[in-house]
Design brief:
Order of helices and strands: HEHHEHEHHEEEHEHEEHHH
Number of helices: 11
Structural class: alpha/beta
Number of strands: 9
Strand content: 5-15%
Helix content: 40-55%
Shape: globular
Length: about 300
């Protein structure tokens, strides 16, 4: 990805709007940081089409955000555009790339070379955005020694030496959930301070370590919710939500009930519990156990 010309060669100099530029000590809000890659993607597409300038309204539409929000976000960068002209596309590409740290090389290690790990290793977008896959790591002897994207898969025992020699600060975890925390701990101990987690589990990290979580199953479940609402379907109130849940969820719920002494969900007489009995039971459990138990019946 071209990062655009330097500020000195741009018609819009870095000092433009300096009096209104927020102090670096104040930082940039996380919500703004999360939108910067969206702006960069839209600007890069414009740059590839040799579009010299773009209005805030046009760029906001391309990035899928509100134009007022875009102007506010850019004010944190000290970029205010030119009235009647808009924003210089190449300069904004440079400015956002610099703010995101994409004007330098970022070595990345990917741990867990299954199907997803292979796909990420072959993703061409890494190199074009300033990220270099420094190493692929796995603990499975059947995987170690194979290649992906032209790189050999190395054993986890080499993690520490790779992080040190390649100056790696970003790790990508694509392992099964049961191994993710252990891998995370090793990455942190080796000196990695930023982690992208694809494993369907929550990682615990010390202060100073940033984790971004990508859970495809959660995103699909959210889309399923919206699809159901768009189709005008409402859950059947006469049946339990768990009755329509996937098999693993129902099994987890049954296990939880047995552990809590709830039997098979029927009343004392052996007949199915009435709605009032179920609600009363739920209230009693909520008062005793709080909401923490509910996560046990949710899919990973």
């Amino acid at each position: 990805m071209a990062i655009g010309r330097s500020p000195q060669s741009s018609s819009q100099t870095p000092d433009q709007g300096a009096a209104r530029r927020p102090s670096r000590a104040r930082g940039i809000p996380e919500a703004t940081v999360a939108r910067l890659p969206l702006y960069l993607r839209a600007l890069t597409a414009l740059s590839e089409r040799s579009v010299p300038t773009v209005s805030s309204e046009e760029l906001a539409a391309a990035a899928g955000v509100n134009s007022a929000k875009l102007r506010k976000d850019f004010s944190y960068l000290g970029s205010y555009g030119t009235r009647g002209v808009g924003y210089d596309v190449e300069y904004l590409v440079y400015q956002i790339s610099r703010e995101l740290g994409l004007t330098q090389d970022w070595p990345v290690v990917i741990v867990g070379i299954g199907n997803l790990g292979h796909a990420l290793a072959n993703y061409g977008g890494f190199a074009s955005r300033g990220f270099r896959v420094a190493a692929l790591l796995d603990a499975d002897p059947n995987v170690v020694g194979s290649t992906a994207a032209g790189l050999p898969v190395r054993h986890m025992d080499e993690l520490e030496s790779i992080v040190e020699s390649q100056h790696v600060s970003i790790g990508v975890i694509t392992t099964p959930p049961g191994a993710a925390q252990q891998v995370c701990d090793r990455l942190v101990e080796a000196g990695v301070t930023s982690i992208l987690n694809f494993a369907p589990t929550v990682l615990t990290v010390p202060d100073g370590v940033d984790v971004r979580k990508v859970d495809l199953s959660i995103e699909l479940q959210i889309l399923a919710f919206h699809e159901q609402r768009k189709a005008g379907e409402e859950p059947d109130r006469t049946e339990s939500v768990l009755d329509r849940a996937p098999g693993p969820v129902r099994a987890a719920a049954a296990k939880l009930r047995r552990a809590a002494g709830g039997g098979n969900g029927k009343g004392r007489s052996g007949e199915p519990a009435t709605k009032d009995q179920a609600e009363q039971s739920a209230k009693g459990k909520s008062a005793k156990g709080g909401e923490g138990e509910l996560s046990a019946v949710m899919p990973a």
